[in-house]
Design brief:
The complex is a heterodimer of chains A (about 200) and B (about 500). Chain A is built from four helices and nine strands; from the N terminus they run ααββββαββαβββ. In chain A, the strands form three sheets. Chain A has a three-stranded antiparallel sheet. A three-stranded antiparallel sheet of chain A has the order 4-5-6. Helix content of chain A is about 45%, strand content about 30%. In chain B, strands 7-6-5-11-10-9-8 form a seven-stranded antiparallel sheet. Chain B has a seven-stranded antiparallel sheet with strand order 14-13-12-18-17-16-15. Chain B has about 500 residues and is of the alpha+beta class. Chain B is about 45% helix and about 25% strand. The chains are: A alpha+beta (about 200), B alpha+beta (about 500).
């Protein structure tokens, strides 16, 4: 199993998002710190420590997150590993996919990267920091794969019901005959959304 | 093409507006003697004020009734090309389309009012996690019309129902029937411990108070001096007592039957519920053992699917409190696809779990100590020492002991079984739950490796299934990477 690394632009994107969030958080902490009584040493130590940790997380976080971020897509599943303090791994079987979304937030647009989100009946998983063309390619490939899976499932259902079916997997079309009535069906992924 | 646009039965206006109308009526009736007294002398200013107030009440009553009546008139339902259309053409116009092929459950419910007037509520849920928090469609029809509507939907789904579940009245027709005694025992075995403790505490406290209080200080004196506290305690005791007996009303007449690929469940005394659960829409089975059930070796079985148990008043029970033998026997009949899971050997999680416990206890102690010193700082200036140091540390020690006890009980209850077709996860502290999930129903697996995991080699993991919020994520016991990889492989093989 060979994992793919995210695009190098991801580090810049991570630094920018991290900078914004860290600045807001430090601003709030400084505001609270300045309102604490002068002799409340324990509180001052705690808040100053928190600010220090936030600064450290801003400096060290993006390179560590970039080094740890990996994704893998094959015929069977999508596997995404990411994390800073702890590593989270999400595994989604391709056959469970219902929907594919492509997102580009304002920071992503600056760096020309996108996020592909795959949605199942009960969950969603994102593959971040993909170049725009790469995101489109992955979304299209997954869409084709979902159509193939849907067609195969339909073939199995119709065959079980005693009918016959002819399918063009590349187009995602099926003409099935059940009970002597020919039915033409298309199986398409429901949407590609862009912000 | 639209076919026969329908409206709900007009009684839904009373049901929807009932609570507010009831409150207004209650208020009016409580004031009626004052109103009559003051209206007798119309020239007095107070009479005119009362008349104005009464007019406002009547206006509010008419407004509420009118609003719901308008909403009822403007809401229509019809079947169109394999979909159920629900349109509300009020100021906030809405038109919802539900694909019949995606329907998970079609249930029928009759509360006391509906039974009196001969109507029935149909509750339809679709197989969607987005809409999993509540019932998607609720329609009230006359009983006859409701059954006809249900049959029509089933025919669209390519299914037929020889005999409706509401028509199954004879107990012999059901595979599982619980008598009144069984229901009472079920209530006993599933009693909520907190409610029992509160109720017992109130009873013991009352007798102690009566026994040892100064005899010159009567109960009337006591109630007068502490009326607010007495009312609050009374309400708490009442709600605890109610939680102990509501199971009887909820499960009275519980019957279950498997017919082809559907399970029919009837239950309820005041509110009659008739569930129809397609077996292929069952995403998991839960075996539940509340604390009392663990002592007496009893089990309850619940289904995990969209549409069952997603509302507070709905139960997801497939079987009430049974022995292990009875669970085996009934599961063989009702859901043979999930039989034998009760007999599978459960593997306990590794003892290295206690390193994680130690870490959690250290963090809890740190947090409590910081909280204590912060509290001391802000209350130093007060004349009374609200929290003496020894009390604080004793309380902290007590909390840590309770946490440790909880972790130990959790360790004793937690475990897993990785089968050929399904996964079983057991969890719990006082109560214990076995969740049985077929691999093809798992939508996603999430594995988390923390800093401590590098030392203990134990990772946390969740599996996601299609269910209402409380059941959609199943937390696995801490396990090593090989075990979690094994589960992931089985999930992918089942695709």
């Amino acid at each position: 199993m060979s994992y793919e690394k995210p695009n190098k632009k991801a580090i810049g994107c991570m630094y920018v998002s991290s900078f914004i969030l860290t600045t807001i958080a430090i601003g709030i902490l400084i505001g609270v710190l300045s309102s604490l009584p002068e002799d409340f040493q324990l509180g001052k130590i705690l808040f100053i420590s928190l600010i220090g940790l936030l600064v450290l997380s801003f400096l060290a976080g993006p390179p560590i997150r970039y080094r740890r971020y990996r994704y893998f897509i094959n015929e069977e599943c999508i596997d995404v590993k990411e994390g800073f303090l702890w590593i989270q791994r999400n595994i989604v079987p391709i056959e469970r996919l219902h929907n594919i979304e492509i997102h580009k937030g304002p920071i992503n647009r600056l760096f020309g990267i996108s996020k592909v989100t795959v949605i199942t009946a009960g969950s969603r998983v994102s593959i971040n920091f993909l170049e725009d063309r790469q995101a489109e390619f992955i979304a299209d490939s997954l869409k084709k794969r979902i159509n193939e899976v849907a067609v195969v499932k339909k073939m199995a259902e119709v065959t079980k019901a005693g009918g016959t079916v002819g399918c063009d997997l590349s187009q995602g079309n099926c003409n099935d005959t059940v009970g002597g009535i020919k039915q033409e069906n298309e199986y398409k992924v429901s949407s590609i959304k862009e912000d | 093409m639209e076919q026969n646009k329908m409206r709900c039965h007009v009684s839904i206006v009373i049901e929807n507006a009932g609570k507010l109308l009831g409150a207004l009526l209650f208020f009016a009736i409580s004031q009626i003697d004052d109103v009559i007294k003051h209206l007798s002398d119309f020239n007095r200013m107070e009479s005119k004020t009362y008349l104005l107030g009464f007019g406002v009440f009547v206006l509010a009553f008419l407004l509420v009734l009118g609003f719901h009546l308008f909403r009822w008139f403007k809401t229509t339902i019809w079947l169109e090309d394999g979909t159920i259309m629900v349109e509300r053409d009020t100021m906030n116009k809405r038109k919802n389309t539900y694909n019949i092929k995606h329907i998970s459950n079609i249930d029928m419910e009759q509360n006391l009012f509906e039974r009196l007037i001969g109507t029935c509520k149909i509750k339809i849920d679709t197989n969607s996690s987005v809409l999993a928090g509540s019932t998607d469609i609720k329609i009230v029809f006359s009983k006859q019309k409701a059954m006809e509507f249900k049959r029509k939907i089933l025919s669209y789904m390519g299914e037929s129902e020889e005999k409706g579940v509401t028509e199954r009245e004879k107990q012999e027709e059901f595979d599982v029937v619980y008598s009144g005694k069984d229901i009472l025992l079920h209530c006993f075995y599933s009693v909520p411990i907190l409610s029992l403790v509160i109720l017992l505490g109130a009873i013991v406290g009352f007798f102690v108070l009566m026994r040892y209080v100064d005899t010159s200080y009567t109960f009337v004196d006591f109630v007068r001096d502490a009326i607010g506290g007495v009312v609050a305690i009374f309400l708490l005791v009442l709600s605890s007592a109610y939680s102990l007996v509501k199971g009887f009303f909820e499960f009275y007449g519980f019957q279950a039957k498997r017919s082809n690929d559907r399970i029919y469940i009837n239950s309820g005394l005041l509110r009659k519920n008739m569930h129809t659960i397609p077996v292929d829409k069952i995403n998991g089975i839960k075996l539940v053992q509340p604390l009392m059930s663990r002592f007496f070796g009893r089990y309850q079985v619940e289904v995990i699917n969209i549409g069952t148990g997603d509302e507070k008043k709905e139960s997801a029970n497939l079987l009430l409190s049974c022995t292990k033998e009875e669970v085996r026997k009934y599961m063989q009949v009702l859901v043979p696809e999930y039989k034998n899971f009760i007999d599978q050997p459960i593997q306990k999680q590794s003892a290295r779990y206690f390193y994680h416990v130690a870490y959690n206890l250290v963090m809890t102690a740190l947090f409590l100590t910081i909280a204590f010193f912060t509290f001391r700082y802000f209350t130093e200036a007060l004349p009374v020492d609200l929290l003496p140091t020894w009390v604080a540390f004793a309380a902290e020690g007590g909390i840590l002991i309770v946490c440790l006890l909880g972790f130990v009980l959790s360790y004793l209850s937690s475990g897993y079984y990785i089968g050929q077709d399904y996964l079983i996860v057991t969890r719990g502290v006082l109560a214990r739950t076995y969740s049985m999930i077929r691999y093809e129903k798992i939508q996603q697996m999430q594995i988390r490796e923390t800093l401590l995991s590098k030392v203990t080699k134990l990772n946390k993991a969740n599996v996601f299934i299609l269910a209402a919020l409380k059941n959609s994520i199943t937390l696995l016991p801490l396990a090593n990477e090989e075990t979690l990889e094994q589960i992931a492989e089985k999930m992918l093989e089942a695709s």
